[in-house]
Amino acid sequence: MQENIIKKGAANWVDGWNAKGGKLILTDQSIYFEGHAFNIGKKQNELKLKEIQEVMTRFLNVLIIITKDHRKIEYRVNGRKKWQQTIQKQILFGDDHEEI
């Protein structure tokens, strides 16, 4: 089954003390971070939407995703509130494909 892209944009994945630049991609089934080739260490991560318990925002464009197994994944994105709303909508009403 192919995933449909709902939203994508430039992002930094905060991995410990490191912030890795790349793209954050929300599909109808998952959230995927694809890092730039020059990043050191792990360059990508993926979360299935069904794994997400909560989506929060903080100042300085911080988007935080808490998983059902209590992992915390942090990204820095432009338009953090819009990202939060779009992710939450996709979790609740996964059938709406609104490509952005």
| Mean pLDDT score | 90
- The helix-and-strand class reads mainly beta
- The coarse silhouette is globular
- Ends apart, CA distance between termini: 20 Å
Strand content: over 45%
Task: Work out the helix count.
Answer: 1
The total beta strand count reads: 7
Order of H and E elements: EEEEEEEH
Query: What value does the Rg take, in angstroms?
Result: 13 Å
Which ranges are low-confidence, i.e. pLDDT below 50, for 5 or more consecutive residues?
none
Q: Please estimate the helix content.
A: 10-25%
Query: Spatial order of the strands in the main sheet?
Result: 4-3-2-1-7-6-5
- Main β-sheet description: 7 strands, antiparallel
Describe this protein's structure.
The protein has one helix at 80-92; strands at residues 5-15, 18-27, 30-35, 44-48, 52-58, 62-67, 72-77. By secondary structure, the chain is mainly beta. Strands 4-3-2-1-7-6-5 form a 7-stranded antiparallel β-sheet, with helices on one face. β1 (5-15) and β2 (18-27) form a beta hairpin. The chain starts with a strand and ends in an 8-residue tail after the last helix.
Map the helices and strands:
Blueprint (H helix, E strand, L loop, with lengths): L4 E11 L2 E10 L2 E6 L8 E5 L3 E7 L3 E6 L4 E6 L2 H13 L8
Antiparallel strand pairs: 1-2, 1-7, 2-3, 3-4, 5-6, 6-7
Defining traits:
globular; 7-stranded antiparallel sheet; mainly beta; 100 residues
